[in-house]
Design a protein that fits this description.
The protein is mainly β and 305 residues long. It is 8% helix and 40% strand. The termini are far apart.
Length: 305
Amino acid sequence: MKRYLKLYSAILVLGISLFTSCAKEANQFTNDGNGGENGIVELADLVPRASSTAYASVTKSFLSQPEVDCPIVVNYTGVNGAPEDVTITLGLDNSIVATNTALTVLPTSLYTPSSFTLTIPKGQKSATLNLKLKTSQFNFALTYALGIKILSTSKGILSRNYGSGIFIIGAKNAYDGIYTVEAGSSVLRYSNPTTPTVNDVLNGSLAGNPNMTLTTATANSVVITNLRWAGGTSSVSGIESLTATVDPVTNLVTMSSGVNATLVNRTGMDNRYDPVTKTFRLNFHWNLTSTKREVALVLKYSGAR
């Protein structure tokens, strides 16, 4: 019996040890009775790595403005926070950005850091570096990123997984977001330039179809995705890169497609954006000399994507 009790005790101790180790990696580290001396210092916003060779990363998007704050938060984990004022030094390591060829290092002309030296006050759990971004000057065709690394800390243990990472930084124009498909939205398909199709279940109202996503393409244009036929189950194809370009002075909209040059505004129909209600009213058609399709869309802003 004693032998079994000893074995049970050994297994229990091993289990506690493994749990504590896993808890640290899962960002659940708690104080160990030493007043938080062994707290982990980490970049707070990073999400887990996609693979063992990848870097932890996070995507942050901001409205296009002359200047906007991008917060970079550093955490000191533990129940009681920092045991004393903790000084942390951050730095850039853009070599890790180069591991992803789809990313472009954010030029220094497009941001200004508040300071790379931060202080987490005693008893507190975080401090923030603010990057002042000039998002109105961003090239929307590029995906910018910065490699940020914790260089040193006066107290605590540097996180192995979240001590450095890639911060992907994007700019969004005023039209970017998720939109609901409202009443007044419809589609009509034709079998030739002048004859509508008969008994076509894809024709009819689009109101209530799944939400549509408008993604920044340039300072004044968005790419529209998830357009579906009536009934909402079937996606519209052949007009990918469907783009709405807004004149910021008149709020009039020009519709186009990156793969179908026949897609244009319907003459005499409403194509405009209402900045007060954040609503698009769009009327466009394509394949005008063959199997014409006509779409009317009323899209109302629902929230950020």
